[in-house]
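Teaching assistant's notes for section 4

Start the section by putting this record on the projector. Ask students to predict, before seeing the second block, whether DNA methyltransferase will look compact or extended. Collect guesses on the board.
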Amino acid sequence: MRQENLFLYDEIKDTKVVNVASVPQRSPFRYPGGKTWFVPRLREWLKSQDMKPRILIEPFAGGGIVSLTSVYERLVESALMIELDEDVAAVWEAVTTGNANWLANRILNFEMNHENASKEIVKPTKSIRERAFKTILKNRCNHGGILASGSGFLKKGEAGKGVLSRWYPETLAKRIREIDLHRNRLEFRKEDALFVIEEYMNDPDVVFFIDPPYTAGGKKAGKRLYNYFEVDHEHLFQLCSELEGDFIMTYDNAPEVLALAKKYGFQAKPIPMKNTHHAKLTELVIGRDLGWMLNINRVLENQAKYKVQKLNRARKKSVIDIS
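Reveal the predicted structure now:
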């Protein structure tokens, strides 16, 4: 019998914010909403599994730090990265299909300044790898690494360096070539996230790390940061309730999100982090059983495990539009 959830508004015992400088930086992106700060908890979650997962699926891959860390540290057999944004997808497609060395050399040989970057970005794109290079340029030159429409170049940047502030060609080339060394265990698909979750729904050897744009309850962060930001959050929670494999979701700490977690019988825990302005915030980690998250009390607890009866329904795509 299904038990009611208990809301436990307790204090966070572990209030220490992860220093991202202590976490290996593996992504070529400086990604808004990236999960580098979550890597220590990611390791705990994957190591808590009874067996090493066959596949980790990252349906909203973005900067891809979760997939890269999971594969590099052999926490999973392989990872499947999913991203719908054409620019971000171009980078992952390029580096996982044999174009990493070309992209690394293109970065190393580019003379970065405001004029050259501006000219390069408006050039017609003839191939995936050229689009990948332009995406890296925009990501490194734009304010906060934001690729969404309306974002512009850094003007002053760090120490008045402007577009040079975040342009580290040797570091970027090294990261991209490192990805190439692991590409036999990395797969990328430009696909609808919810469609892929449903595709792997009945596979118990697959785990999911789900970090959707934060737009539940009318939140604006996802809309401001990403080109593809509209997600059917209700449908996402429904799909997660039917997964055979394990999953965790990270979400904005908002009443609307807690309400969905309660409705579908999930546990939720707050975790401390810092945003790009270094303000201390909390995000929610949501899953079936968060017992592996030590030193953090649940704000939402479900004691009973139950199987959701699967309904015969047509495969449904999430609602995703470009701004």
